Every structure is written in structure tokens, then in C-alpha cells.
């Protein structure tokens, strides 16, 4: 048997570059940076990260090869490359937001874990084999558990990490159980082959057990209600850059892989979640999760006093909207899902970036944001863009994300308007969400500050936050920049 | 003969597994752990019958050996008296039985209805040589991902267990 290592290597160059950058970050920190002040150290390491990630992004932009390792363990096509580029961009933003915070002295370890988590996401995106999916998912999750516990001075960080770890372990068990039942039913590990084997068997009761277990497992990962209990504590307790990474990068990768498993692996078992058109399959399960997430996320966010917690509940709600994109079970819905999670990820990294800055002057409570517009006008303007985008106000990216997801969900059942009930619910709930996003803005712009000191922001962080705000506005005004790319990648892939 | 061995070890596996969680005589965690060792050994015997000798050896070395030592180590750190005094809640026992029962029912129903996924080969390709070839050809990437996973675990453990010097 001849195995072509050179071909595998050239397909996996971006991942290799990221992994090598991870080692470099640790090495550079240990050898050269030990005695520098923390902020310089973080800036330099973030630069190393950015250079590594950018070269991987550039490589993926230049090479247009497609590759498929035996049994679909590693698949490279335009779609996976696009999502990997998005993930790496999110990693760079997270790295620069970390400059602002001061939660650890173990910066080399922080960056190696951050980069290995990104590598895990990249492997996850390229995996179409349940074994590879599980392994990559574990690489990602394990890195995130440790990152969550990074702030060793804070009890909450430890508590958050423990909760995240226990819930994550549970969800991994569910995922593994579901996937092994699928293997038991079909005898295949490759998603396409699974779908082919399942074609005549979709009434097999064991398949439904497997389906529910898998969806539960990934429901934990994307923090969809009712599996969202870990999210608020984990978001609040972990160091803010890590929170943004969990909310942004890991969400993009998890939603992508969930959609891929359901679209490719369980093709033919969609069922129907339409009003009065119920057919069992995976869409009704997801429809329940989406409806619960949208309701619970938005209603629970209203009463939050901590901005990080508020953003956590809003993340649950946004997970619900994104599930609508998966529910459509077609390519157009998939494109809307990718656009939605990408713009959401950009917005939420920016929002957490602002929180990271404000946290240095007190905490993350709503009252700590009082009068921020006088203390940091640029930052406040950026926060306004992020909050309005999350609420879905045109012409910001958040509006078009929701617009695409909702229209693709409605167009799906053109005859029956099957998903209309869910879309109406989602629109009503996003009206509710405007209330708590405006609460934050009210604190920033209307309420007087008790503390009048000007807020100083590290230059790289300021730059990243402003860049993100501009990206949110530009992607909202010219959504075709991203949508065109996604559609092109889909038709090629 | 082959069948007889299979049934003996299969029944032993299930019996020991039940004794791990629901031992009517003793509630000591140590007894449970020892029954777990027996379960794993019986499973290794099942692997031997499939001619998957390498898997059988790994099953004993890793699970019955290394993982069990870890389990016993954790049990040592626990308060055993507390564990023995703890009451089994009727609700959770009922729910657990219900869940296990329904999954068992589905598995049996599914096998009766649809049969097996395909003809099951009498031997698996579990020989050490073929496994090694696969690990370094088709599965070389998952293998490398696993090594990264172990690296993350190592960095994480060192970082979290190290005392920060002030």
C-alpha cells in the first residue's frame, strides 16, 4: 500500500503552520520575553500569532487545491478553506484583545493553547469522518477548558472551568454514544457513506436514538437551550478574551460541523418541522432547540446585571437564530448560516473587547459602563455599533445576517410556509432583545459616570475594536463581500 | 466451542458490569473498581475471540492497568464512609432504569427488525502489523491530532497544578 504523504502534507499546510506558530509562541516567550513587562510580551506574542495565522490565511487564499483523504478524514475544498480563514481571522482578533487584559503571567502557555484550539477548529472543519470529528472536537474542547481556568487569581474562573469541563465531558459522552450508535447502525465512519447506508433505514429506532444523542451533544457545544446551563457561568468566569474566543471561533466551527453532520451524514432523514406538517427527522428536534433557545436566551438576558452574562444569554438566543439556518436543510440556508455566524462572531469579539477594556476599571456590571461615552468616546461608538448589530438594526451586519436566515427559512416551504411559526417567534423575540441591548447603550450614553477618569486602551486592542466595528458596518452595507464568497465556495465545493 | 466461549464471556462481562454499579452485597467503591477490572478483562477475552490480539493486550494494559490505577488513586482521596452511607435516590434510580430500559428495548427491537448492518466477519483485522500500517498511512492525521491533544493536556495540567509564585 502506497500512501501519499506529500499530498496530505501539502493539503494540511495551513494547519501545520498554525501548529508550528503555537510552538514558536511558547518558545519565543520562554527564551526571549521572560523579563519584559507583561503588556509588551502579550503584544509581541499576539504579533507572532497574527503573522502565523496571516500566512496560513494567505496560503489558503493562494492555493486552490482540493483534497480528500481516504474515508474523508481530511477534506479540503473551497468551503472548508473559507471557514478556516474566518476562524483564523477570529483567532487574530482574540489575540490582540488579550493585550488589554492582565490575568496571567503564563503568556506562552496562553498563546500555545489559543493556537492549538484554532488548529483543532481547523481540523474539525476539514473532518467528514466521525472519528476525526470527535478527535478534533476534543482537541478544541480540552484547550478551551484550560483557557477558561487561566485566571488563577479568580475563584470564578476556576468555577467556570469546572462547570464547562463537567458539562463538556457530559456532552462529549453523548456525542460519542450517538456517533458509535451510528457506526453500529451503518458500519461506516465516513459521513457520505453513512448517508448512503441510512437511505433505506431511516425508520430504524436505533437511528433516532443516535440522532437525538448526537444533537444533544452538539447542542451543549453550541449552547442551545435546554443545554445552555453552562454558558452563562463559563462566559462570566473565564478571562474576557477567552470568553470571546468561546463565543466566536468555537461557535463558528461547531455550527459548521453540526450543519455538515446533519446535511451530509443524515441526509434523507430531515423530516419536517412545519406547522401541521410534522414528519419525524432531525429538523423537528432542531426546531424545538431553536424555539427554546430564542425564548430562554432573550427573556433571561433582560434581568442580567453583568454585561458578560447578558452577552452569554444573548449568545444562546443567537444560537437559536443560527439553528434556523440549519433547519432549512439546503445550500442556501447553509450559506445564510455561515454568513450569520461569521458576522455574529465578529460583533461579539468586538463587544467582549470593549468589556475587557472596561473591566480594568472595576468590573463587568452594567453600572461600570455608566458614562463611558465621556470617558472613552471611540470605544463607546464601537460598542454602539456592536450592540445595535446584535439587536439586528439595519444597515449593520447583524440585520442582514438575521434577514438572510429568516428569508431562507421562509422560502423553504414555499407552498406551506412551514417554518413561518418559528420565524415569527424569532422576529418577536429579537424585538424583545432590543430592550436589553439598549439598556447597555443607555448606561454608556445617558447615565452619568461616578468615575470620571479617562479610559486608556492598549493601542493594538483599540485598533482591533475599531477595525471590527468598521467590518460590522461594511459587511452590513455591502453584505455581498462575504455572501458572494460563500456562494462561490459552495458552488465549487 | 467458539460460541460457548463467547456466551460465557459475554454473560460474565454483563454480570460484572452490573456488579460495578449495583452490587447488592457491598457498596464499597473499591469493590466496584475491582469488578470493573473483571469487566475489562472479560472484554479483552472477547477481543481475543475476534483475533484482535493487539486490542486485547491494550485493553488489559491501558484500561485494567493504567486507568484503574488512576481510579483507585482517586478513590483513595475520597471519603469512603460518606460514599457508603449515601442513600440511593428513588427518583434517579427510577429514571436511570427507565433510560437504560428504553435504550435496551430500542436496540433489541432494531436488531430484530433490521438485522445486522452487514455480515459480521469472524475475525477483525486487528493484527498488530495491520493496525500499525493503518496508523501510519490512512490514520496518520488523527494520530497526529491525538498527539496535539496530549500536548494540550500536558500544558494544561502543568499550568493548572503549578503554584503561582507571588
Percentage of β-strand residues of chain B: under 5%
Separate helix tally of chain A? 21
Through-space gap between termini of chain A: 29 Å
**CATH level 1 class label of the largest domain in chain B:** Mainly Alpha
Summed up, what is this model?
By secondary structure, chain A is an all-alpha fold. Chain A has helices spanning 5-11, 13-31, 38-62, 78-97, 107-126, 130-148, 155-186, 191-198, 205-221, 230-237, 240-247, 249-265, 282-302, 307-327, 331-359, 372-375, 377-391, 397-412, 420-445, 459-477, 480-492; strands at residues 67-68, 75-76.
Structural descriptors:
heterodimer, A: 493 residues, mainly alpha, two-stranded antiparallel ribbon, 21 helices, 2 strands, globular, B: 166 residues, Four Helix Bundle (Hemerythrin (Met), subunit A), 2 domains
Structure, explained:
The complex is a heterodimer of chains A (493) and B (166). Chain A is an all-alpha fold. Chain A has 21 helices and 2 strands. Chain A has a two-stranded antiparallel sheet with strand order 1-2. Chain A is globular and about 70 Å long. The two termini of chain A are 29 Å apart. Chain B folds into 2 domains: 85 residues, NADH-ubiquinone/plastoquinone oxidoreductase chain 6, subunit NuoJ (Four Helix Bundle (Hemerythrin (Met), subunit A)), CATH 1.20.120; 40 residues. Chain B is mainly alpha-helical and 166 residues long. At the A-B interface, α5, α6, α7 and α9 of A face α5 and α7 of B.
Amino acid at each position: 500500500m502506497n500512501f501519499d504523504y506529500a499530498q496530505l502534507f501539502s493539503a494540511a499546510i495551513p494547519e501545520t503552520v498554525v501548529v508550528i506558530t503555537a510552538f514558536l509562541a511558547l518558545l519565543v516567550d520562554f527564551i526571549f520575553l521572560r523579563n519584559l513587562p507583561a503588556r509588551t510580551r502579550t503584544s509581541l506574542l499576539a504579533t507572532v500569532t497574527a503573522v502565523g495565522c496571516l500566512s496560513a490565511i494567505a496560503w489558503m487564499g493562494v492555493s486552490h487545491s482540493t483534497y480528500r483523504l481516504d474515508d474523508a478524514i481530511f477534506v479540503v475544498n473551497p468551503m472548508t478553506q473559507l471557514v478556516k480563514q474566518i476562524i483564523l481571522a477570529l483567532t487574530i482578533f482574540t489575540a490582540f484583545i488579550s493585550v488589554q487584559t492582565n490575568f496571567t503571567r503564563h503568556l506562552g502557555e496562553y498563546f500555545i493553547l489559543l493556537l492549538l484550539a484554532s488548529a483543532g477548529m481547523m481540523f474539525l472543519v476539514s473532518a467528514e469522518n466521525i472519528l476525526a470529528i470527535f478527535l478534533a472536537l476534543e482537541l478544541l474542547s480540552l484547550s478551551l477548558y484550560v483557557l477558561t481556568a487561566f485566571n488563577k487569581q479568580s475563584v470564578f474562573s476556576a468555577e467556570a472551568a469546572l462547570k464547562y469541563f463537567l458539562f463538556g465531558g457530559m456532552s462529549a459522552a453523548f456525542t460519542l454514544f450517538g456517533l458509535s450508535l451510528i457506526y453500529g447502525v451503518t458500519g461506516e465512519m465516513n459521513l457520505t457513506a453513512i448517508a448512503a447506508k441510512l437511505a433505506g433505514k431511516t425508520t430504524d429506532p436505533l437511528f433516532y436514538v443516535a440522532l437525538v444523542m448526537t444533537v444533544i451533544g452538539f447542542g451543549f457545544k453550541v449552547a442551545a437551550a435546554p443545554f445552555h446551563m453552562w454558558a452563562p457561568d463559563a462566559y462570566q468566569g473565564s478571562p474576557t478574551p477567552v470568553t470571546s474566543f468561546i463565543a466566536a471561533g468555537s461557535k463558528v466551527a461547531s455550527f459548521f460541523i453540526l450543519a455538515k453532520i446533519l446535511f451530509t451524514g443524515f441526509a434523507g432523514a430531515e423530516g419536517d418541522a412545519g406547522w401541521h406538517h410534522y414528519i419525524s427527522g432531525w429538523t423537528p428536534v432542531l426546531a424545538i432547540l431553536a424555539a427554546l433557545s430564542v425564548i430562554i436566551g432573550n427573556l433571561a438576558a433582560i434581568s442580567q446585571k453583568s454585561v458578560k452574562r447578558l452577552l452569554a444569554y444573548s449568545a444562546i438566543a443567537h444560537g437559536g437564530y443560527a439553528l434556523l439556518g440549519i433547519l432549512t436543510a439546503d445550500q442556501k440556508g447553509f450559506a445564510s448560516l455561515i454568513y450569520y455566524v461569521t458576522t455574529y462572531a465578529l460583533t461579539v469579539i468586538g463587544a467582549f473587547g470593549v468589556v475587557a477594556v472596561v473591566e480594568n476599571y472595576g468590573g463587568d456590571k452594567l453600572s461600570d459602563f455608566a458614562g463611558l461615552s465621556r470617558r472613552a468616546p471611540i470605544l463607546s461608538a464601537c460598542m454602539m455599533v456592536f450592540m445595535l448589530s446584535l439587536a439586528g438594526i439595519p444597515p449593520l451586519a447583524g440585520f442582514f445576517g438575521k434577514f438572510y436566515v429568516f428569508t431562507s427559512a421562509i422560502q423553504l416551504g414555499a407552498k406551506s410556509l412551514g417554518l413561518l411559526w418559528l420565524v415569527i417567534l424569532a422576529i418577536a423575540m429579537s424585538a424583545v432583545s432590543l430592550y436589553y441591548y439598549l439598556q447597555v447603550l443607555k448606561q454608556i450614553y445617558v447615565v452619568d459616570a461616578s468615575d470620571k477618569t479617562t479610559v486608556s486602551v492598549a493601542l493594538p486592542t483599540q485598533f482591533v475594536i475599531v477595525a471590527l466595528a468598521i467590518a460590522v458596518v461594511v459587511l452590513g452595507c455591502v453584505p455581498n463581500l462575504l455572501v458572494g464568497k460563500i456562494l462561490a465556495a459552495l458552488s465549487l465545493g | 466451542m467458539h460460541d460457548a466461549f463467547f456466551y460465557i464471556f459475554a454473560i460474565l462481562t454483563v454480570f460484572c458490569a452490573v456488579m460495578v454499579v449495583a452490587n447488592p452485597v457491598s457498596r464499597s467503591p473499591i469493590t466496584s473498581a475491582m469488578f470493573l477490572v473483571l469487566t475489562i478483562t472479560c472484554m479483552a477475552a472477547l477481543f481475543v475471540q475476534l483475533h484482535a490480539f493487539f486490542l486485547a493486550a491494550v485493553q488489559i494494559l491501558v484500561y485494567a492497568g493504567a486507568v484503574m490505577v488512576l481510579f483507585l488513586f482517586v478513590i483513595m482521596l475520597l471519603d469512603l464512609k460518606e460514599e457508603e452511607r449515601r442513600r440511593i435516590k428513588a427518583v434517579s434510580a427510577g429514571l436511570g432504569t427507565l433510560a437504560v430500559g428504553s435504550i435496551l428495548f430500542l436496540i433489541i427491537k432494531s436488531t430484530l427488525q433490521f438485522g445486522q448492518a452487514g455480515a459480521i466477519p469472524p475475525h477483525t483485522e486487528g493484527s498488530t502489523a495491520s493496525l500499525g500500517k493503518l496508523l501510519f498511512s490512512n490514520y496518520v492525521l488523527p494520530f497526529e491530532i491525538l498527539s496535539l491533544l496530549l500536548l494540550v493536556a500536558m500544558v494544561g495540567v502543568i499550568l493548572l497544578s503549578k503554584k503561582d509564585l507571588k
